[in-house]
Amino acid sequence: MIQPIVVGTDGSARADVAVEWAADEATLRRCPLHIVYAAERWDYDVPFHAAPGMCESLTETGERVLAEAVERAAKARPGLPVTTELAFDSPARALRSQGRRADEIIVGHRGLGGFTGMLLGSTSLRVAGHVPVPVIVVRGEVCERRGEVLAGVDLSEDGTHVLRYAFEAAALRGAWVRVVHAWRLPVTPLAVRETAALSQERLTDAIAPWRAEFPDVGVVEQTPCGHPVGELADRSSRAALLVVGSPERDHAPCLGSVAHGMIHHADCPVAVVPPPG
């Protein structure tokens, strides 16, 4: 069974951009699109008995927002299969619940404050790195005309999942891949040249299998000395998509510091890819 691309919406301008981006992604990956709206009945996760008519009002609002999102997706990609879901839950829980039956989950950078809460500090950070599928945060300048997929890899960890996703995304877009591994200055100044050479050698070795599997995808390898967040952010303005990994801690997925930084600072959509589970 083909899993859908799932996108959350709240009817805001940034969510509209995310819906259009998700429609393009679904078309590229030949997946259906599933649009989710979360109508949260209470604040601060404290339930209460809803006032008469409140649930009906939430339902009407949700159905209207979903209908508008379907229309927007259909306009962007005519013929794309689209389904919708109105969830009475918090935005983060509503999207996390999709993790086992989605190909990818897509959220906007900023929304209205509730899905009605898709503010960066809440939904995006509570979903990315916490589900077993890639999460794409649509932020920055959305420009598919940029012919580059930017990937940040940490050579101290297994970056296979990041490289696989980046090369697949580039192949789908007819783009090239820029793979960046940033390293820190060693304690001993005399070891700088050795550290730089070793970083380049290890990056070349890590990329070699993907060059072989995707011979038509051009590759740029870079091993700058610096902090990965700054180095990736500086390069993100030239990319159609930035790909980073989420680490696993205590056998559970989490959002690492680099992914967290890129969700805040990248100038393009950010894909946070979990390790294989």
Automatic annotation (TrEMBL):
<dbReference type="Pfam" id="PF00582">
    <property type="entry name" value="Usp"/>
</dbReference>
<dbReference type="InterPro" id="IPR014729">
    <property type="entry name" value="Rossmann-like_a/b/a_fold"/>
</dbReference>
<feature type="domain" description="UspA">
    <location>
        <begin position="1"/>
        <end position="139"/>
    </location>
</feature>
<feature type="domain" description="UspA">
    <location>
        <begin position="149"/>
        <end position="274"/>
    </location>
</feature>
<dbReference type="InterPro" id="IPR006016">
    <property type="entry name" value="UspA"/>
</dbReference>
<comment type="similarity">
    <text>Belongs to the universal stress protein A family.</text>
</comment>
<protein>
    <submittedName>
        <fullName>Nucleotide-binding universal stress UspA family protein</fullName>
    </submittedName>
</protein>
<dbReference type="InterPro" id="IPR006015">
    <property type="entry name" value="Universal_stress_UspA"/>
</dbReference>
